[in-house]
């Protein structure tokens, strides 16, 4: 079974690399086509291969979406497992944990069925269909393999420093990608005044100011953690980007007299700072290829807006 998983992962990475190469060629063809149609100068880097690319532009092959990791998104609800780092503090447990009790059954290789008593609250209430798994002494490799064997779509790992939640890793299964976020300004749901019982409706999603290719990539990673909501759902979750910090806000709304909409914060709330995307899963993350990593030299005033400014994408690619 392990050999089969490794073979499937290698085949997937190979197909993805071919798609990346084809996409790069198609982008060059589009630039040359646009320059010819608008009587502009062809970019210096493209002049050497301009004739060959222009001749192939008419018969260019169709490109499959780079986000084929999410090709089944929307056809079935995501299945999410949330866990913590080892020996979590009480504050991190509250951030993940909840009041309901459930059982989650894992089967992995020759092991017997493991019934884990799972409790949910803060993050369980955020992600519908999520289950919290007690970490215990399990290794990340064991957890990811168990999740993959049980058709889990996403594995979320929450970390802390000195009792404060400060990190979130979202690993999409079975082959990736894996996104890394730093958490800032975490406010627990129980710290929000006048909160009401949490609705379990599937939420509507709002993504603001995530316009660049990198921003759209993170939009896909976060968007497909949630199932498709019904039109009459009164829950709203917002991911708003400001200076490459993604503000997470969770509200419910009601329509009052006069047709005005009244928002009520449900919590929790925090800021997400993305810093890496790996083309692989957590159990083999050291061997995974970097799709994007935040570097220290990117943190300048000119290149601050990595998630929102479309015009800066060419600078980042260079």
Question: What's the quick description here?
Answer:
The protein is α+β, with helices and mostly antiparallel strands and 318 residues long. Helices cover 26% and strands 30% of the residues. The strands form two sheets. Strands 1, 4, 5, 6, 7, 8, 9, 10, 11, 12 and 13 form an eleven-stranded mixed β-sheet that branches. It has a two-stranded antiparallel ribbon with strand order 2-3.
Notes on the structure:
This protein has 318 residues and is an alpha+beta fold. It folds into two domains: 2-64, no CATH class; 69-318, Brix domain (Rossmann fold, 3-Layer(aba) Sandwich). The chain is built from seven helices and 13 strands. It is globular. Mean pLDDT is 79; it is low at 98-120.
Task: Please outline the helices and strands.
Elements: H1 2-37, H2 50-57, E1 80-84, H3 90-96, E2 100-106, E3 114-120, H4 122-126, E4 130-132, H5 140-149, E5 154-161, E6 164-172, E7 178-187, E8 204-208, H6 213-223, E9 235-242, E10 245-255, E11 261-265, E12 269-279, E13 289-293, H7 313-317
Parallel strand pairs: 1-4, 1-5, 8-9
Antiparallel strand pairs: 2-3, 5-6, 6-7, 7-12, 9-10, 10-11, 10-12, 12-13
Helix pairs in contact: 1-2
Q: Write the CATH fold name of the largest domain.
A: Rossmann fold
Mean pLDDT: 79
Distance between the termini: 41 Å
Q: Which CATH architecture of the largest domain would you pick?
A: 3-Layer(aba) Sandwich
Structural class determined from secondary elements: alpha+beta
Radius of gyration: 22 Å
Question: Can you give the helix content as a percent range?
Answer: 25-40%
CATH top level assignment of the largest domain:
Alpha Beta
How many β strands by DSSP? 13
Tell me the fraction of residues in β-strands, as a range.
25-35%
Count of folded domains: 2
- Largest sheet report: 11 strands, mixed
SSE order, one letter for each helix or strand: HHEHEEHEHEEEEHEEEEEH
Note poorly predicted spans: 98-120
The CATH superfamily of the largest domain is known as Brix domain
H/I helix tally: 7
**General form:** globular
